[in-house]
Fold this sequence. Notes:
Blueprint: E1 2-9, H1 12-18, E2 27-34, E3 53-59, H2 64-82, E4 89-92, E5 96-99, E6 102-114, E7 117-127, H3 142-146, H4 152-166
Parallel strand pairs: 1-2
Antiparallel strand pairs: 2-3, 3-7, 4-5, 5-6, 6-7
Helix pairs in contact: 2-4
Amino acid sequence: xxxxxKKVVSSTQKELMMHMDTFPHLTVLSAGYQTEGHGxxxxxxxxxxxxxxxxxxxxxxxxxxxxxxxxKDIAYIIIDILxxxxxxxxxxxxxxxxxxxxxxxxxIVESKTRNQEILGAVIGFGVNVNQTTFSIPHVTSMxxxxxxxxxxxxxxxxxxxxxxxxx
Length: 167
């Protein structure tokens, strides 16, 4: 596994999608801040610097069958991890992870194909960890729910390891 952490990127998802050919299978790109962070349907992903998990993983060895449920599979991995800290964590189609109907995390999967062959997929996920102020309603974080700060990189490491074991 190749791990890259940058202080600032446009978007971990966009960077891995654009440079898919140059990175090996299981390249992880995380960032302290994204200038163009996005979720499903190019919705903006709001995040203060160094307060949340912002990460994408490139998967090159993947079948069409695996790709179909990948977004939901990754969401449930993150849900299982969050449940060790917070109760009442749930999944809302197509890609939201909620705590009591407030969004705490999201997962996005994009793939690149050529002649019906999958060249690779990028699994992107964001988890609100220590941020407590949001400009949009119905959003929460681990810190808001637990009333304590967390080590963002440790939470990221736990998630990456569980995803790597799954893939």
